[in-house]
Amino acid sequence: MEKLNFSCKLGVLSRPDGSAMFCEGDLKISSFLGETIVIAGLYGPVEVKMQKVLIDKASVECSYRPKSGLPGVEDRLYESLIRNICETSLMAALYPRSAVLITLQEMHNNGQLISCAINAACLACLDSGIDMKFMFGSVTCFLTKQEELCLKPPINEKDIKAFFVFVFDNTKGRILASHTKGSFSKEQYEEALHLSREESKNVFIFFKKSMHTND
Amino acid sequence: MSSVRKTIVSNCEKKFLIKNLSEWTRLDGRAFDEFRKIDIEFGKDWGCCSVSLGKTRVLAQVSCEIQEPKSSRPSEGILNINIELNTIAAPHFESGRQSELSVQLNRLLEKCLKDSKAVDLESLCIKMKEKVWALRVDVNVLNHEGNILDCASVAALAALAHFRRPDVTCDGEEFIIHGYQQRDPIPTVIHHYPLCVTYSIFSGGHYEHREKYHLKIDFSDYIVADPTLLEEGVADAFLSIGLNAYKELCGLHLGGKAELTPDVILNTANKAAMRAGIVAQLIKDSVEEDSVKRQEKLELGFHKTIDNEKVVESIEELSLCLDQWTSKRKKNKKKKKQTKIFEENTIKMEAPRTESNLVAEIESIGKGSAALVPNDNRDNSEVWQASESEDDDDVMIVEQPKQVVDLLDIADSGSEEEAVIVLNSEKKSKKKKKKVKTEY
What we know:
The complex is a heterodimer of chains A (215) and B (440).
Chain A: E1 6-10, E2 18-25, E3 35-46, E4 59-65, H1 73-89, E5 99-108, H2 113-128, E6 136-144, E7 149-150, E8 160-169, E9 175-182, H3 186-214
Parallel strand pairs in A: 4-5
Antiparallel strand pairs in A: 1-2, 2-3, 3-5, 6-7, 6-8, 8-9
Helix pairs in contact in A: 1-2
Chain B: H1 11-22, E1 38-42, E2 48-53, E3 56-67, E4 78-85, H2 100-113, E5 125-127, E6 131-143, H3 148-162, E7 164-165, E8 168-171, E9 174-177, E10 186-187, E11 195-202, H4 205-213, E12 222-225, H5 229-234, E13 237-243, E14 249-256, H6 262-295, H7 303-308, H8 320-338, E15 340-341, E16 346-352, E17 357-364, E18 370-374, E19 398-399, E20 406-409, E21 420-423, H9 426-439
Parallel strand pairs in B: 4-6
Antiparallel strand pairs in B: 1-2, 2-3, 3-6, 5-6, 7-10, 8-9, 11-12, 11-13, 13-14, 15-19, 16-17, 17-18, 20-21
Keywords (chain A): Exosome, Nucleus, rRNA processing
GO molecular function (chain A): RNA binding
Domain Exoribonuclease phosphorolytic (chain A): 6-130
């Protein structure tokens, strides 16, 4: 199975407490096969607005910006997905009556935008040094029209029959979130899950490596 | 706009900054008419560009769609500019909600790009009264470290210059939009390159500040180019000038309160014109460079920057000057252990800046304090001066008790401010002095 290439840069922005530019995909090959790039920034814990105060934990807010146009329904869906993941992984109970703001900005999209955004969010959390229960990493798996599963997006977008986004934690490899689009059989889902779980190990290895080199 | 999470500028900072300005220095060591470094990067998509001005960073993306033209202008395309202040740029920004700042920035940018007719809208017409291209420029602010407007105007213009729209053909009835693979896309026609150049004005010092802060310095208006976040917060007013490379004015905005004479505005506009010319050329060059890269099928996109700099300094350079101060303090501590402090009127200090050989002179003023007088005539009389009352030493002159020639490296972090001081006893220092003298 082909491996994904990752690269990242931590602390790309000076204002947020933690920021990361995460890049996933084919970095070497010519301009047809591209990569997906997302910038993530995290502020937290910061002052919270009155209507969002939670007395027992920090309120996690997430906003996702597409590169062009106004954010639509789909973008809101990604937002809530990422917010839920961050809520479970951050030690929100340590910061009552405060807020954690996570902002994601699409830089370039080549298919695996959601998983890339989630990984960028995790790196931003790590960069900011906020308390976390575990790391989270995400993998997108594509099902092509030829009923093949692959981790890299096919060159032609029309070849995609379905795609799966899985998010795992790094301690026990549990599933934190699963997002699918398109039609597929149960076996295909399970196979995709298995593939993604294996690949997620590489993601975590990359996270650890990048925290090491960026220090 | 809500004041939640807003960064507050303290009185201390205000006072310090104004006092610095009165001594002709800025916190980051720039001259008053010096701008921060501009960096333009293009993404893989057409019309995608990320510009950083110092640490301020902005992402612009141009998109296009076919629309019906406005009835008042049936043969013209439509250009929309939208600036978005994201939470990522500053915690008090709210994305998706209009604030006073975002409306102002949007309007200024529109004035500069749209009202100056920089983009040829008639070439965007497909069919009169029926179909025209509508271009939309989305400017996303990623990091707010002051002067968003200049950065956004460069980004928007560079993105427009970089953008290509798909070709459209018409066979009588039907319009066919050809994809990027089928036919070569068409670049946007840009008549001229108008850019915003922003200055901060520190005035009101005549009356308000002097009384408030008990400063004994005569204030005149300090006009500072490309203000940082702190300078923006302290400044009394800002002057934004929209100009193109031909010195044609495309917009002028004075926000805040300042007493400016026409002469001052004209002078500033002249300086801004120089700047606009340089930046316009920079945009043209980088667009050209990008198209050459595309032809040669070289690597493109933002990820390049990641690969090039594997090891990242997360806090690149703090304010330049502040850095120097801390490093000097450290240096002092180190030297105090081994050496005695002595006074001498002048000692030549050579700071080999890899490229520009900057030679500086140290003058001691009173006990334990000294002034570093740079000999490069960059900004004439604007020099650092330590007042006599200051106890904390900025630069120290040190002597080895025994005759040992000692090379001390006070380089901090290996950035530009690398300096090697040659410290000698008197005998040897004379020899060294001669050497130094012969060098310039």
